[in-house]
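Technical annex B. To support the medicinal chemistry partners, we prepared a structural model of the target in complex with MTE, based solely on the information shown next.
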Amino acid sequence: MAVVTRGFGGRRPEPEHEIPPGQFVTDDFPVLSAGPTPNVDESRWELTVRTETGEGTSWSWEQLMALPAEDVETDIHCVTHWSKLGTTWRGVSLDTLLADVETSAEFVMARSYGGYTTNLPLQDLLDGQAWVAFEFEGEPLDPVHGGPARLLVPHLYFWKSAKWLRGLDLMDDEDLGFWEQNGYHAYGDPWLEQRYA
Ligand SMILES: Nc1nc2c(c(=O)[nH]1)N[C@H]1C(S)=C(S)[C@@H](COP(=O)(O)O)O[C@H]1N2
Ligand SMILES: [Mo]
């Protein structure tokens, strides 16, 4: 009988991954941007959370780096039918960032440097479901993939994971972001194939 030896540093076999309907798996990391990559230097990077009452809280890069970060391993699913399995990220949980933010809002508009926007229910950013990610596969996040930092919300289609994140506006009522105004689904659950409105 064959004995499979996993040498020191050997790779474990890929665990079983479920793939949402209509998706295929890729090992590439396609770049999908609606505009040019904004040049966001860490020295001028700032993230601002604004509540429905106009109350703002901002973090500089140094302040973000001083917060507890988490390593995240997850599959990601793009509405253009590619999925990438077992990606690894490091970032600050939205639970940490929003812990002291007083709000009764139910919706969020994520805003990016460069003007991109995407809307999400606030619930979907909480309870260990979303991060402000600044590393991918152990390296600083490449600018084309949203560096210095992007939103990571892997349970929704990847257009919700705003690259070059600069702000989160909390809202009482749902408002639509860039792709959502252009025919994409308001919520975007890949398991329900919520691609288009
Ligand atoms: N700021 C910004 N974020 C964005 C986009 C964009 O055009 N601008 N595209 C979205 C879409 S449609 C996808 S599929 C993913 C692509 O991320 P990637 O280029 O790192 O693969 O980013 C999302 N976040
Ligand atoms: Mo996308």
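Notes passed to the chemistry partners:
DSSP finds three helices and eleven strands in the chain.
Confidence is low (pLDDT under 50) at residues 1-13.
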